[in-house]
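User: I'm preparing a small set of examples for a lab meeting where we compare how different chains pack in three dimensions. I only have the primary sequence for this one, and I'd like the structure in token form so I can line it up with the others. Please keep the answer compact; I'll paste it straight into my notes.
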Amino acid sequence: MPETCDCAALPHLVDALEQMAFVMVMPAETVPAAPAGAMLATIRFSGGPVRGTVRLLAGRQLGELVACNIAGPDGSAEGPGITAADALRELLNVTTGSLLAAWEGLPAGTVFEMSLPEAREIDSAEWQSLLGAGGFAVLEAEGHPVAIGLSMED
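Assistant: Understood. Below is the structure token output for the 154-residue chain.
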């Protein structure tokens, strides 16, 4: 089983996958190889003294599954205007919003600003480099690898 970081975003990703996308999640048994169509989605945030980036690693097939589940039974794998990249961006957006809403220890009334989520395809070398650098919690979502990382800025 891969070493799992203490990533505060992890329970929020699990909730988003299970409740929004209807996808079951399990801990990964090994550090996964890059899936076909590997993607990196990122979103930046700031509020009060807190500033950072949440990163999501997943493959196109997981994005297609999430898109299909979001689109409902009448939608195709790339539902009405929902691409795999769109679905992964929205998954990251919901995960980050949930994380920030639950953030403890901040002054009352702290308001967070979030960037628009971005997603891009990456090659297997970048996938392995990101996971090898640490800071990601790695899961399997219905057989598809997915990883979440939270990095804080000073």
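A couple of notes for your slides: The CA atoms of residues 45 and 114 lie 4 Å apart. Strands lie at 25-27, 39-47, 50-58, 113-114, 118-121, 136-141, 144-152.

User: Perfect, thanks.
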